[in-house]
Amino acid sequence: MNPMRAEKIRDCVVHIGSEKTGTTSIQNFLARNRDALVEQGFLFPRSLAHGDAAVHLRLSEIGRGRGDTERSGVAAAFGRECGEAARAGAHTAVISSEFLHSVIRTPAAVARVHKFLAPFFERMRIVYYARRQDHLLASMHSTAIRGGYTTNRSALTVYPAKGHHYFDHMEVCDLWSAKFGAENLICRIYERGKLVNGDIIDDFSSVVGLPVDATRARVASNESLSFETASLLLLLNGSVHKDNKELRRKLVAAGRKRGGSKIPLLTKADAEQFLSKFDDSNRAFFSQYVDRTLATGFSAGFDAFPETIPDPPPARQILKLVFGAEP
């Protein structure tokens, strides 16, 4: 099928993240309810994901210029899916990939995404959730520890690894608005008090036009690690067993079951200094891209961060975390 001849769906919402703003929860919700969404006029496509994954990774790969040999096949499959959905009455397609935030960093890459999607839709909108940069830094560090990507106890190491663009909301929004239009960019703030019902799925649903279900069970995804679990995983990450995925899974599960202290590996002073890097760009971001009735700035305060980073727990406490209470 020539995708240019596919029956068009009226609207497309492209959710680009950012990372660490509940994207996995949104994607899992949409994937679990895919059939019910079609009945309500919404398509959450399968063809832009790999296998049974919920994230539309293929679109970010197309943006990066990867998978050129597969692109025509992806376009044909996506065209068929959109055509079937349109004939069934779908009016909106919802696409979601946080990798559109983290790895799409050039005008050429955004243009490739736009070029791929444009034939299928009459209108496209970009949805972007912004998180205060120091909280984003600490959360990304927790994810790196969980995945075995770092042995460093300092969250500050994430910044050079990810680069400035990753954290600069103004830069990200300028990049996407240049191709899609600022009028088609919807920016939301990832803070509980600024989300509909304090919930990321309810907030996203309200943005795309889905009914908000007050009876829906709230299920968290990718919860932050406790200080004790993070300390344990840092030991694992520096050991010969770092690639043992089953052991890692069991340790994370044990940490979730035992609980522990929620202490980011970022001091209050370092958090404040890091956030100050973005003072000017954050002011511009809120002024240009955020509805003033929603927010004019991120919430203030650094009480979530410790004055100093505690020493790692002693071996006895680590063993208790893994094996439970002493007999």
Question: Which short descriptors sum up this protein?
Answer:
327 residues; alpha/beta; Rossmann fold; 9% strand
Structure description:
There is one protein chain. A five-stranded parallel sheet has the order 2-3-1-4-5, sandwiched between helices. It has 16 helices and five strands. Helix content is 48%, strand content 9%. With 327 residues, the protein is an alpha/beta fold. The model has no long low-confidence stretch (mean pLDDT 92). Helix 3 (57-63) crosses helix 6 (107-117).
H and E string: EHHEHHEHHEHHHHEHHHHHH
Strand line-up across the major sheet: 2-3-1-4-5
From the N-terminal CA to the C-terminal CA, the straight-line distance is 67 Å
Multimeric status of the protein: single chain
User: How would the global form be characterised?
Assistant: globular
- DSSP summary: helix tally: 16
Estimate the helix proportion, in percent.
40-55%
Name of the top-level CATH class of one domain:
Alpha Beta
Q: Judging by the overall fold, what is the CATH architecture of one domain?
A: 3-Layer(aba) Sandwich
Uncertain regions spanning at least 5 consecutive residues: none
Q: What share of residues are in beta strands? A: 5-15%
Q: Quick one: biggest sheet?
A: 5 strands, parallel
CATH-assigned fold name of one domain: Rossmann fold
